[in-house]
Amino acid sequence: xxxxxxxxxxxxxxxxxxxxxxxxxxxxxxxxxxxxxxxxxxxxxxxxxxxxxxxxxxxxxxxxxxxxxxxxxxxxxxxxxxxxxxxxxxxxxxxxxxxxxxxxxxxxxxxxxxxxxxxxxxxxxxxxxxxxxxxxxxxxxxxxxxxxxxxxxxxxxxxxxxxxxxxxxxxxxxxxxxxxxxxxxxxxxxxxxxxxxxxxxxxxxxxxxxxxxxxxxxxxxxxxxxxxxxxxxxxxxxxxxxxxxxxxxxxxxxxxxxxxxxxxx
Amino acid sequence: xxxxxxxxxxxxxxxxxxxxxxxxxxxxxxxxxxxxxxxxxxxxxxxxxxxxxxxxxxxxxxxxxxxxxxxxxxxxxxxxxxxxxxxxxxxxxxxxxxxxxxxxxxxxxxxxxxxxxxxxxxxxxxxxxxxxxxxxxxxxxxxxxxxxxxxxxxxxxxxxxxxxxxxxxxxxxxxxxxxxxxxxxxxxxxxxxxxxxxxxxxxxxxxxxxxxxxxxxxxxxxxxxxxxxxxxxxxxxxxxxxxxxxxxxxxxxxxxxxxxxxxxx
Amino acid sequence: xxxxxxxxxxxxxxxxxxxxxxxxxxxxxxxxxxxxxxxxxxxxxxxxxxxxxxxxxxxxxxxxxxxxxxxxxxxxxxxxxxxxxxxxxxxxxxxxxxxxxxxxxxxxxxxxxxxxxxxxxxxxxxxxxxxxxxxxxxxxxxxxxxxxxxxxxxxxxxxxxxxxxxxxxxxxxxxxxxxxxxxxxxxxxxxxxxxxxxxxxxxxxxxxxxxxxxxxxxxxxxxxxxxxxxxxxxxxxxxxxxxxxxxxxxxxxxxxxxxxxxxxx
Lengths: 265, 265, 265
What we know:
homotrimer, alpha+beta, eight-stranded antiparallel β-sheet, six-stranded mixed β-sheet
């Protein structure tokens, strides 16, 4: 039975106004007609490598084994930063060597890493300003066709790695920082749910984000507090989230990525 | 001959900036590799159940028989509102039991309704804040694989229903309200084309939206009036629409969803 | 081996907030279940035929041979402008006869052109305000199913054509205009890379866009100048581009489409 071709996900900071993402998909289908393409997002904040890395790490575990994740958040396009492929235990990762692939790939552990150098696996005369089209999309498509990772270029022993800031705990206080703010205004922290095991549902906390403090209860879901009220919740990516029921915690706390967070009993 | 797998449409208020929709698609392909996924929109106004319901009702009739419509506009996520599947005459509907599925499903008439309770048809350890990923996307994917609706949980005898406000007619006046405003600024009313059968093309009307009145002719298409001028037209969903040629009736009439509309000879 | 069905690209000015694009995809899959659909963009500036034409011309060469490009940028919908199909050497083009298809189709040269008139290839009772759904999407889907172009209506001997303004060269100065500004704020001119062959990498130029002048070097890629500095670069579509490293040339030069550009040694 036909099972569908390999899945290629695409994550970029290109936006959806221009034709750039559509062009990359045209390239992919030209090389691998059976690929199944999924957009993760094209609205990563421009040139924000850490945000792209977090979004990919949050997404990749939900994709089928063997998926190919194509990421182009690449302020250094055309310079001498490497173009790489990481072979993880479950999936393949294609993109610039600036750390954007690293959170997701290392979470499943990286088996092999190569630099993309073989020009036969690129479009002819690759442009220096749109390697997404000329280098990365072809690489993802050839991988989807079953070309071996060793065919793209030499093994590399190392690659750029990012890591999230480490949260800490002292007496009656959890300390962390804001790692992501979603479109609903939910403020995602780097405090993992494992640090929340002793906290009782319904208990109230003083929540401080940088300079702004509020009292908020720890709940299972948004709708357990009145509309407009803040709450703490374990978010869908497994981290402590600061939210406002049908409102925006981003606005209430004037939160920005990188802000310090303190949660006190 | 291969005919393509089942079609799954997705309609949410998640926006396209975050990875949430991409994650749901990864889940779908993990369970049903042959599904064909179509985005209806992810820009339903946040938590606007009525708007989502209208958009789905406008869309579903154009999809192939057997399509599965997955809708997540769900301000009550994680509370005790039910998660349901409605089997219509043509299509299947998956989402929260808050009315968002009801306009579309009832239009084709509902044959069976079940509550989603079987945890084997969910991701393990479902999150309380992202049931789109953990409950609804798996349900749609298992349906696409051919799992029977009765496998997901018990039959239910009732579900939340919305209905559009009823328009009325008196002498020389049609009275209704604004049910949708599209991205072009076209103002869609709840006055169906069946109430317009006696109106002559080219005739002029006094059109009032809440407090703002203008004179506008009834035309077949936008470009029959000068650029910037208002007109009345039968919109593509079969309702009377107030429009401005290459402009925005929303701005001209300061229109909002729910505003009262009066059209007078 | 299954090779995937025909590729249909879609380019519109509909935006992604409304359900219109999703409805068109439902229509396509209802007629041709094996089509593979790719979005080019739905954010063409409203009613901007020239912008849509440029985006299509930039995209089509990267799509597989035999692709069907469905374009709905159509301020004259419902009036007597024709609905057409152009058979190019590589691909098929479906849309209104207002020039939006012409740049791309003529670049590969047009073999045959027909007017869409056969109502059996439309949805029943086509609406005058949404021919994308009722006329163009069905046409693209029937083409994808292999229906011959002659089945849709009579041959036409001519169609609306756009052309980009011609750049010129005098002594030490290149003169052109702004034809596109992308979401990064990169300003694309109509000066082709063939006119840049004598220019040395690293050389500096006076760049004027309408009333604003800056000095900028000619570089291979954005990151060769300091963050925030302007540069000239051969953009990915083969034209001279004015850019700012990790910034916006659109803002720096207050550029708009159609602005005059002068590059002087």
